[in-house]
Amino acid sequence: MSLAAQELDIEAAYHAVSDTYLGSDVDIHGLCRDKRHNEPVMQGDFVDTYLKVPTNAGAKAAKCAVTLFKYKDVMTVLRDADTFTSGFIAEGLGAFFDGLIILAMDGEQHRRTRALLQPVFMPQTVNEWRPEIDRVIREEFLLPMVADKKANLMDFGLYFPIRAMYALMGFPADDPEKFKKYASWALALVAANQIDPEKAKIYGPLAGQAVKSLYDAIKEIVVRKRAEDTQGNDLISRLINAEYEGRALDDHEVTTFVRSLLPAAGETTTRTFSSVMTLLLERPELLERVRNDRSLIGKLIDETVRYEPVATFKVRQASKDVEIGGVMVPKGSMVQCMVISANRDDEAFDNPDAFDLDRKARPALGFGFGPHMCIGQFVAKVELNSAINGILDLFPNIRLDPDMPAPKIAGAQLRGAKTVHAIWD
Ligand code: HEM
Predict the structure, then answer these.
(1) Alpha helix positions (H), 228-352
(2) Which interval of the chain is the signal sequence (predicted)?
(3) Pocket of ligand 1 contains residue 268 by CB under 6 Å
(4) Which residue has the least CA distance to atom 32 on ligand 1?
(5) Which of 25, 139, 207, 234 is the most buried (most CB within 10 A)?
(6) Distance of CA 96 to the CA centre of its chain
(7) At what angle do helices 297-307 and 377-394 cross, to 10 degrees?
(8) What range defines the domain where residue 299 resides?
């Protein structure tokens, strides 16, 4: 079977990514709890042994030498990006991005690139977009749904992050249909990372086409904005006007940077939205509390990202011989960090299996930690906050639809609920 990038729709692309990273249907929290107590530094590759999902290191990377389950060990690794590097990612997913993918950068190059991109993602910049994000979410998405009194909330969850994110990046807002096309191409890149050789035959070439289509679409916008001498505060305009390594970026570099951000930008927020709404609608008392006190939405998002992080693990490579949790890890070894386990470590969080908005604040690792910590987290939080507020305002007495299957958070690598069916008055 062959599939052309031009024909790919976003739902198909999203579900292809979900299927790729679903892995084995195991009790991941139970397995991790067992490891935390009995083998907190496991010799070997937990993900390959138990979960059967690809890692972003790609098929070429060596298997992991050790897997970490404790909060303190995972944090030690994520915090120290000089000893535990990310450059190997360039051989997997990064191969699609001509090396200009921040996730796969180390050392000085990573610091300089982060400094270049960071201003667009700072809370003060993101907050300038809040009124527009609120308007788009309510007027374009939620208000047209009100009269139906029921929905699979994921029909909304799939689209609103893309719509908001692409505007922030500087894509012209006049044709939202185009955003869906771009987002489906970005997802095709994420789906390329297949273990199954048959699927790899389909998604490998598709990703090749998608990467080229995205490049052409973004480049056209970059060229136009540069010709207009843009001074906007969107990402593309800022990159055009920024200095990088003592000089301006050319059109190819701006295009490649923007393209490299897209796969991280949409579906992580979509999956987090599915988990927030599932955890909230499953708890009517909490729902009532949040409805009456919207200042709790920030904590609701933070607790969701702790309790059910979208990305269950991160991989790093040791740049020298190093000891972790009493185990010697030789230089060059892959180190797998089970974020989903660290976030429920009882040495870090009291009663960790409870979903509790009142718990003592402590950094959970669902947005990562250290130098590679999610650059887009404020954007994601603003979008989610706006979406949850809009739903609580516009869908009175929203609750789970008793006639439809209950939502289920699943996924061995990328977690979320496939559907969230709700009704309202
Ligand atoms: C709820 C939604 C999101 C979640 C849960 C999430 C999660 C993460 C995590 C765990 C990392 C760390 C990766 C690592 O350590 O290797 C990360 C990095 C990153 N995220 Fe997000 N992310 C979200 C939304 C976004 C958005 C909206 C953007 C927008 C562009 C974004 C862009 C990035 C980038 C560029 C990096 C790499 C940063 C670096 O390497 O310095 N993310 N994200």
Answers:
(1) 235-241, 251-265, 267-281, 284-292, 297-307, 339-342
(2) none
(3) yes
(4) 376
(5) 207
(6) 18
(7) 120
(8) 5-423
Mutate to test the pocket of ligand 1, among 365, 374, 382, 386 (most ligand atoms within 8 A of CB): 374
pLDDT, one tens digit per residue, over 37-73 is: 999 999 988 888 877 776 654 444 566 689 999 999 9
pLDDT at position 209 is 78
Q: Based on the structure, what is the number of domains in the chain?
A: 1
Q: How many Å apart are CA 66 and CA 68, to the nearest integer? A: 7
Q: Is 102 in the pocket of ligand 1 (CB under 6 A)?
A: yes
Residue 412 burial (C-beta neighbours within 10 Å; 0-12, 13-18, 19+):
buried
Q: Which of 377, 381, 388 has the most ligand 1 atoms within 8 A of CB, as the residue to mutate?
A: 377
Place of tokens 């590097």: 85
From edge to edge, which strands make up the β-sheet containing 421-423? Answer: 150-152, 421-423, 399-400
Tokens (6 digits) for 425: 């008055």
CB 281 within 8 A of CB 290: no
Distances (CA, A) of 303 to 312, 347, 359: 15, 17, 9
The single-letter code of the amino acid at 284 is P
Q: What is the pLDDT of residues 316-373, one digit of tens each?
A: 999 999 999 889 999 999 999 999 999 999 999 999 999 999 998 888 899 999 999 9
Residue 59 has a pLDDT of 45
- For residue 318, give the CATH number of its domain: 1.10.630.10
- β-bridge pairing 334-338 and 64-68: parallel
Give the pair of three-digit tokens for residue 401. Answer: 């639809």
Scanning the structure block, which residue is given the tokens 């789906």?
Answer: 191
| Whole-angstrom distance, CA of residue 421 vs CA of residue 55 | 31
Q: Please state the rounded mean pLDDT for residues 289-312.
A: 97
